[in-house]
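Fold this sequence, please.
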Amino acid sequence: MTSPGNHRRAALSGALVSQRGDFALARLIGHGLHGAMHELVRSNDLVLLGAIEALLASANLDCLIADQHISALEGMIGAFPRRLLVREADRKRARALLVEAGFGGELRPE
């Protein structure tokens, strides 16, 4: 289990995460998942990212929404979209789940 101080970690491959994302990040690092990540979606649509994050969580797939702080700093003008990342090992399962749920058009090319 991670200590409260570990929930303040703020970097994974140079990406800053929000406080909520810190818990996911701490969980990913705690499971030794700080290695290869796969970018599923890149978007400025917070509702879309939230829906996909909830869908992945319901399937017990961990994910990380990267670049949240930089998106907030740039004033939400859309210059820096957020990236939704999953473990490389979960890539195929996560992509199939999103296609089945109707989010296939949002997926980044492989």
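The beta strands are 37-43, 63-66, 82-87. The chain has four helices and three strands.
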